[in-house]
Design brief:
By secondary structure, the protein is α/β, with parallel strands linked by helices. It has one domain: Metallo-dependent phosphatases (Purple Acid Phosphatase, chain A, domain 2). Helix content is 28%, strand content 22%. The strands form 3 sheets. It has a 7-stranded mixed β-sheet with strand order 3-2-1-13-14-15-16. The longest helix has 28 residues. The radius of gyration is 20 Å and the shape is globular. The two termini are 29 Å apart.
């Protein structure tokens, strides 16, 4: 009996130690500490700064589809090494329980990239803060602070600069005009000093889409409260998730009356809007016809690869088989990003999601709660 009890105690200690080491590695090799280490490495290089990064989101399902995308990102890294991985939220389904799922739904699937010092920089989705879709639904326990600590990001909204790009991550669950976050955003975007001189690119990302033809659709409060700020401070790209599909928008006519906002003035600055929510969660069908300005959409598992060098930004959306399905190169211009070649509208009317069988999440061992 004593030997069995001792064995149980030693096993428990080993598991706790393994989890502690894993979490410590996550906190030191992701988030803002990882970015600071990357900037020191970049400072030693005399070459023209090139920044490669990937975007994915709505990934924390624990299904084989999440593992497929993680595997394709690793294969892509081996051919085209990138430094940053931006996550558009819903990092741990369904209620953000990083204590239970941090190891098996983050450290395990992305272990190769983490070990190569790729910096993972997430936003928080509605499932990460314990709130189901629909503000009238009851709240569950929020894991906001636990995720902030786990990923090493300091706050639920934050910014960082790498080479000549200024990245800003928002908590769109709580963003509204006049809030502390909104005031912080304007101060932050007003700072134009980057690592390699003046910032050439401004990229903002959050969980909720500005525009979407998917299940959840466009976010009216962000169009009202956030879009004018992005245009005023000449942000080039706004990236989001929430709808489990891919959408890329060019110039969107204002006013966009089909979502009930008809009082905004036209701004000549063109923000490119991207929805990337195909990181592993169940895919959503498109519920609406193509919105004005929608250039491409596809309901498929995917991640998006970017390469920024000089005045060009290359984008490639890649599916779970490693095949690109949308590619475009932008250059900076006097009114924002402009494609180097004419960009035709190819979204179709109501394309159905790529059909995959519904798979259950892989079991996670019991962990800290």
């Amino acid at each position: 009996m004593m030997q069995r009890r001792l064995g149980y105690i030693l096993t428990s200690v080993f598991i706790l130690l393994w989890m502690t080491i894993g979490w410590a590695n996550a906190q030191s090799q992701t988030g803002l500490p990882c970015v600071e280490a990357l900037k020191k490495t970049k400072a030693a290089s005399p070459r023209q700064p090139e920044t490669r990064f990937v975007v994915f989101g709505d990934n924390g399902s624990g299904t084989p589809y999440q593992e497929d995308i993680a595997r394709q990102m690793w294969r892509h890294f081996q051919q085209n090494p990138f430094q940053l991985a931006l996550m558009t939220g819903d990092n741990f389904y369904f209620f953000g329980n990083v204590n239970r799922y941090g190891d098996c739904r983050f450290l395990a699937p992305y272990r190769e990239l983490i070990s190569r010092s790729v910096c993972f920089l997430p936003t928080l989705g509605n499932h990460d803060v314990g709130r189901p879709v629909g503000n009238s639904a009851p709240f569950f326990r929020s894991y906001r602070q636990e995720q902030v600590r786990f990923f090493g990001i300091g706050h639920d909204y934050y910014d960082y600069k790498v080479n000549d790009i200024h990245f800003v991550a928002l908590n769109t669950n709580t963003y509204q005009a006049g809030s502390a976050q909104a005031q912080w955003l304007q101060r932050t975007l007003n700072d134009n000093d980057c690592q390699a001189g003046p910032c050439r690119w401004r990229i903002v990302y959050g969980h909720h889409p500005m525009y979407s033809s998917g299940k959840h659709g466009s976010t009216a409060r962000l169009i009202r409260d956030l879009k004018p700020v992005l245009e005023r401070y000449q942000v080039h790209l706004y990236i989001s998730g929430h709808d489990h599909a891919y959408e890329r928008y060019g110039r969107i006519p204002t006013p966009l009356t089909n979502i009930g906002l008809s009082n905004q003035a036209e701004n000549p600055w063109q923000v490119v809007y991207l929805v990337s929510g195909g990181g592993g969660g169940d895919l959503y069908p498109f519920k609406k016809p193509c919105l004005p300005g929608l250039q491409h959409r596809r309901a498929d598992y995917h991640f998006v690869s970017f390469a920024a060098v000089g005045e060009t930004l290359q984008l490639s959306a890649i599916n779970r088989d490693g095949e690109p399905f949308d590619q475009v190169t932008y250059h900076t211009g006097p009114v924002g990003l402009q494609p180097t070649t004419p960009d035709s509208q190819t979204c179709g009317n109501h394309p159905a999601p790529i059909h995959y069988p519904k798979l259950k999440p892989r079991a996670c061992p019991a962990a800290r709660r």
